[in-house]
Design goal:
Blueprint (H helix, E strand, L loop, with lengths): L22 E2 H8 L3 H9 L18 E2 L1 H15 L4 H13 L9 E4 L4 E4 L5 E3 L5 E3 L4 H12 L23 H11 L1
Antiparallel strand pairs: 1-2, 3-4, 4-5, 5-6
Length: 185
């Protein structure tokens, strides 16, 4: 039974995310913003293989699931960020070797050279260095920690330093005080 198309791109009677709907290569290219040549190369080399239906000879069409399109978009964004296709491939192979079947559920971070997997707000793993752990510093978290620490510590007003009588009139800093003493001296 074939479902009818809905306005949001889904099909009645099936879920876009569950793989019951497939997208042809041309549609995938437009959705992701890549060329058909890139898509074909990535499928032939195993980088992103369509999970609904792979090509099985001349005249057959690959069908990509919604999740496949998400992975394709991530690969494109990593390429746009300057990560080499070789490093992207290594990162994805690392994830797959660890048994991660659903690449669309992973959060990846990149500095343009390497690719990191964000497992939680506290844990980030470098996928190109054998899963070596790295750390991130959440500035907002540090800000709140400092606020909490300072809430029970003394503070001073940030106004001008007090002028002592021996510094003389108009002497507001150490240099002015030395000049005044030298003149008086």
């Amino acid at each position: 039974m074939e479902g009818r198309a809905l306005a949001d791109g889904g099909v009645a009677g099936s879920s876009v995310e569950d793989g019951a709907v497939g997208y042809r290569g041309v549609t995938a290219c437009h959705a992701v913003g890549i060329s058909y040549r890139q898509l074909d190369y990535w499928a032939r080399t195993g980088l992103v293989v369509p999970s609904v239906r792979d090509a099985s000879g001349s005249g057959t069409q690959r069908l990509y699931s919604f999740r496949d399109l998400v992975v394709l978009k991530v690969v494109k964004r990593l390429l746009d960020a300057g990560v080499s296709l070789q490093n992207i491939r290594r990162a994805i192979e690392t994830l797959r070797s660890r048994g991660v079947a659903d690449l669309a559920g992973i959060t990846l971070i990149s500095d343009g050279t390497t690719v990191y997997e964000c497992r939680s707000p506290e844990e980030v793993v470098d996928l190109l260095q054998g899963g070596q752990g790295v750390f991130g510093i959440a500035i907002g978290g540090a800000f709140k920690e400092i606020q909490g620490s300072l809430s029970h510590l003394p503070a001073e007003p940030a106004g001008e330093l007090p002028v002592s009588v021996e510094d003389g009139p108009g002497a507001g800093d150490e240099l002015a005080a030395r000049r005044a003493r030298r003149r008086a001296g």
